[in-house]
C-alpha cells in the first residue's frame, strides 16, 4: 500500500489483432482513482470503456494485449505481474460486476455454493465460516430470507435479485476496487434505483473504490464523484460530476447530454439532438482530435493537424478537457420545455381500441402434482385506445402485462376475454395466421432485440425485400428500389442492403428492423422496448426517427418501455400497468403531474436524472410481489404501496377515479393524493 492513488493508469495502450491488422483501441490513456472514490466512465459503444476494465484485470483474451503504459494498483504494476500474482489480486482485491449477471453465475450450482466458493478459494476459509459470511452478505444486499436464497438456483431469482447476488459475490472478500460494467442495463427503473442505492450504501460501508462504466448518465450522477468521458479510446473530458453535467466543455460531452430526453420536456418543446455519424474504426487514426469528423464545432487544421492536449478548465482546477476550442465555446445550457395539452389531437377516432381485455395462461400440468394450479392472469380488464397519428405508451415493471398486450395486438397471442379492434376490425380472437393480408399490413412490430427480426444468415436487403414481396406483393424486379427507398427513410445508406446483421452496429440493426416493419406501410407500429439497450446518441436518433415516420405517415405508435424519460418525451397518452391491470391512464402531461397513482409516484421517483441539481426523495417499494398465479382480492399494489391506508386496500378492488380525461385506480381520493404528493419530474433550474 502507498499514500498515492489506489489505481494509477498511465499512458495505457491496448491493441487487438484483427484480420485487417492490429487495431489500437486505447492509444494512451491516463487517469487515477483514489481509495473510496467512485469514477464514472462514459461514452458510446466502441469507445473502449470495457476494454479499460478488462485491461486492469489483464483479461483481454487472445486477441488483445497491452502494448504500452502501466497500471499501478496499491503500488504494484499489474502489467508486469505473472499469473500467480494476478490470481492473488483478481476476485480478492479487485472484483468485477458485469452487465449480465448470468455471465457470472453458474446455472447448475446453488447461490449459496457460489457465494461460499469465493472466500474459500481466495482466502482459504472453512466452509462454516464461508457460509456465515455468505449469509451476512446476502443480508447486506437486502435480500429477504437469506437462508432460502442460499438454496436457490440462479434461474429461480429475478433479474434484480441476480444482480444483487453478483454484487454480494464481488464484495464478500472486501475488495479495494469494484469495477461495474453496465450493471443496471435492462433492469426495471425501480430495480435499477434499488441497485444504485445499494451500490452507494455498500461503497460507504466497505470503503471500496468503484469504476462505474455506463451509458446511462443519470445512473452516473447518482453513484459517482467524478466522471471521465471517453471517445475512441481517449479521455476527452474529466472532472467532478457537477462540473461535467452543469458546465461541459467538450463538444462530445455536450452532444451526449443533448441526446437525453428530460422528464420536463416533450417532442414538441425540446427535440433531441443526436450526434451525427458514428464512432469511427480505430484502424485509422487522424493526427488531431478523434471526434473531429462528427464535431459541429470543428475547425479544420487547428483541430485536425496535431494531437490535442488536455488542459484545465478556467476556474475549475479539477476539471480537464482535451479541446482547443473549449474556452471559445459559449456556456452550455440544458434544453428544457414543458409540454402542453393537445386535446384536439386526442379527439380522433381510435385506430387501436382495447376493451376489457383479459389474457390468462393455463399452468403447465406436472405429473404427480396434487390439485390444480390457478391460471396465470397476465392481463385483466384492460381498456386502452390510441387515435391515428398518436402515441400510446405502456409503462410498468417486468411482468406487468405490457408485452402481453403487444402480443395480442399483433396476433402472437389471442385474448381470453374482451375485445381488441384495429381500425374498427375486431382482431382480439384472431391469431396472426388467421388474419388476412390487409390486417397483417396494418400492424407491424419493432422488437427490443433487432436480432429477433433479422436473420443472421441473410442480408438486410433480403429481410426488407422479403417483407415487401410478402406484404405488398412486389415483384422481384421492383424489390431493389423499394429496399433502397426504405433504407433511405430510416437514414441508412443503400449499400447497407448487401450487409448481414453482424456487420452492423446496434443502432444500424435497429434501423434496419424498423425499415422491415415499414415495408407494409403500416397504420400501427407496436414498438416493444426498441431503445432500452442502445447508447444515448443511437437512442435519440431512433426516437427522432420514430417521431418523423409517425408525422410523415400518420401512423399510430404503441410504445412499450420502462424508460419514463423517453415516454415523457414521446407519448401523447400513457398507461401505467401493474400486475396486468391499469393503475393510471391519461394524457402524458397529466400522468406526469400530481395527483399520481402511488405506483406512478414511485416509478417517477426512481428515474435517474442526469442533473446533479435534481433532488427528489426516493420512494422505496418494499413488500412482497404477489405470485403470477395469485389473484389479489383488493388492490394489486397493496402489498408494496407506501401509501396503503388499511385493510380496504387488501380486501376491496380500488375504484377508478376520473379527472377529466385522466383516471387513477386507487382508494385514496384524488385531492388527498395531490395534497400528499409533490411534483417529481421537473429538474431544478441550474444557473447559467
What does this structure look like?
The chain is α/β, with parallel strands linked by helices and 688 residues long. The chain has 3 domains: 7-231, 3-Layer(aba) Sandwich (Rossmann fold), CATH 3.40.50; 253-321, no CATH class; 341-423 and 523-688, P-loop containing nucleotide triphosphate hydrolases (Rossmann fold). It has 22 helices and 24 strands. The protein has an 8-stranded mixed β-sheet with strand order 6-7-8-3-9-10-12-11, with helices on both faces. Strands 18-19-20-15-21-22-24-23 form an 8-stranded mixed β-sheet, with helices on both faces. A hairpin with a 2-residue loop joins strand 1 and strand 2. The protein starts with 6 loop residues before the first strand and ends in a 12-residue tail after the last helix. Residues 338-344 and 683-688 have low confidence and may be disordered.
Short characterization:
This protein has 688 residues and is an alpha/beta fold. It has 22 helices and 24 strands.
Amino acid at each position: 500500500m502507498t499514500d498515492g492513488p489506489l489505481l494509477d493508469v498511465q499512458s495505457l495502450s491496448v491493441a487487438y489483432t484483427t484480420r485487417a491488422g492490429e487495431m489500437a483501441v486505447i492509444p494512451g490513456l491516463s487517469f487515477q482513482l483514489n481509495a473510496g472514490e467512485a469514477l464514472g466512465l462514459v461514452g458510446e459503444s466502441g469507445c473502449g470503456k470495457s476494454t479499460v476494465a478488462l485491461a486492469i484485470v489483464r483479461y483481454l483474451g487472445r486477441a488483445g494485449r497491452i502494448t504500452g503504459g502501466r497500471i499501478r494498483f496499491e503500488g504494484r504494476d499489474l502489467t508486469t505481474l505473472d499469473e500467480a500474482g494476478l490470481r492473488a489480486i483478481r476476485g480478492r482485491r479487485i472484483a468485477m460486476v458485469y452487465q449480465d449477471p448470468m455471465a457470472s453465475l453458474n446455472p447448475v450450482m446453488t447461490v449459496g455454493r457460489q457465494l461460499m466458493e469465493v472466500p474459500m478459494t481466495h482466502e482459504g476459509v472453512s466452509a462454516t465460516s464461508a457460509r456465515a459470511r455468505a449469509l451476512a452478505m446476502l443480508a447486506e444486499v437486502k435480500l429477504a430470507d437469506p437462508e432460502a436464497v442460499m438454496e436457490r438456483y440462479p434461474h429461480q431469482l429475478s433479474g434484480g435479485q441476480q444482480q444483487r447476488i453478483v454484487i454480494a459475490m464481488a464484495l464478500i472478500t472486501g475488495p479495494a476496487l469494484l469495477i461495474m460494467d453496465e450493471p443496471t442495463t435492462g433492469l426495471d427503473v425501480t430495480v435499477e434505483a434499488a441497485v444504485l442505492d445499494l451500490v452507494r450504501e455498500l461503497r460507504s460501508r466497505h470503503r471500496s473504490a468503484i469504476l462505474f462504466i455506463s451509458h446511462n448518465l443519470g445512473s452516473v450522477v447518482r453513484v459517482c464523484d467524478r466522471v471521465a468521458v471517453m471517445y475512441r479510446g481517449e479521455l476527452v473530458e474529466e472532472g467532478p460530476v457537477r462540473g461535467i453535467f452543469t458546465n461541459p466543455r467538450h463538444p462530445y460531452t455536450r452532444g451526449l447530454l443533448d441526446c437525453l430526453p428530460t422528464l420536463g420536456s416533450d417532442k414538441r418543446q425540446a427535440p433531441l439532438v443526436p450526434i451525427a455519424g458514428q464512432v469511427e474504426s480505430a484502424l485509422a487514426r487522424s493526427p488531431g482530435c478523434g471526434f473531429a469528423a462528427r464535431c459541429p464545432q470543428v475547425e479544420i487544421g487547428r483541430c485536425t493537424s496535431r494531437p490535442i492536449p488536455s488542459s484545465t478548465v478556467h476556474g475549475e482546477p479539477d476539471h480537464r478537457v482535451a479541446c482547443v476550442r473549449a474556452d471559445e465555446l459559449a456556456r452550455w445550457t440544458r434544453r428544457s420545455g414543458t409540454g402542453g395539452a393537445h386535446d384536439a389531437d386526442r379527439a380522433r377516432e381510435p385506430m387501436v381500441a382495447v376493451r376489457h381485455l383479459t389474457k390468462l395462461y393455463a399452468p403447465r400440468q406436472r405429473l404427480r402434482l396434487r390439485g390444480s394450479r390457478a391460471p396465470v392472469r397476465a392481463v385483466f380488464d384492460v381498456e386502452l385506445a390510441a387515435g391515428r397519428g398518436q402515441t400510446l405508451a405502456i409503462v410498468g415493471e417486468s411482468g406487468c402485462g405490457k408485452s402481453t398486450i403487444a402480443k395480442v395486438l399483433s396476433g402472437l397471442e389471442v385474448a381470453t376475454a374482451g375485445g381488441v379492434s384495429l381500425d374498427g376490425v375486431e382482431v382480439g380472437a384472431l391469431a396472426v395466421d388467421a388474419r388476412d393480408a390487409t390486417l397483417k399490413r396494418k400492424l407491424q412490430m419493432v422488437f427490443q432485440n433487432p436480432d429477433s427480426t433479422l436473420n443472421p444468415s441473410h442480408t438486410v436487403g433480403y429481410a426488407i425485400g422479403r417483407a415487401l414481396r410478402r406484404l405488398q406483393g412486389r415483384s422481384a424486379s421492383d424489390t431493389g428500389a423499394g429496399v433502397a427507398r426504405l433504407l433511405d427513410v430510416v437514414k441508412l445508406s443503400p449499400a447497407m442492403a448487401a450487409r448481414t446483421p453482424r456487420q452492423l452496429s446496434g443502432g444500424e440493426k435497429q434501423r434496419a428492423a424498423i425499415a422491415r416493419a415499414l415495408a407494409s406501410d403500416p397504420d400501427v407500429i407496436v414498438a416493444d422496448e426498441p431503445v432500452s439497450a442502445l447508447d444515448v446518441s443511437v437512442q435519440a436518433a431512433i426516437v427522432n426517427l420514430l417521431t418523423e415516420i409517425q408525422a410523415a405517415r400518420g401512423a399510430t405508435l404503441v410504445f412499450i418501455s420502462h424508460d419514463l424519460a423517453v415516454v415523457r418525451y414521446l407519448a401523447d397518452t400513457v398507461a401505467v400497468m401493474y400486475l396486468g391491470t391499469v393503475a393510471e391512464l391519461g394524457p402524458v402531461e397529466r400522468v406526469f403531474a400530481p395527483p399520481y397513482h402511488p405506483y406512478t409516484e414511485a416509478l417517477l421517483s426512481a428515474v435517474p436524472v442526469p442533473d446533479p441539481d435534481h433532488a427528489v426523495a426516493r420512494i422505496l417499494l418494499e413488500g412482497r410481489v404477489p405470485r403470477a398465479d395469485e389473484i389479489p382480492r383488493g388492490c394489486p399494489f397493496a402489498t408494496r404501496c407506501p401509501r396503503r391506508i388499511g385493510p380496504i386496500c387488501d380486501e376491496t378492488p380500488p375504484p377508478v377515479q376520473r379527472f377529466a380525461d385522466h383516471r387513477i385506480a386507487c382508494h385514496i381520493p384524488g385531492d388527498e393524493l395531490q395534497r400528499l404528493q409533490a411534483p417529481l419530474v421537473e429538474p431544478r433550474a441550474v444557473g447559467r
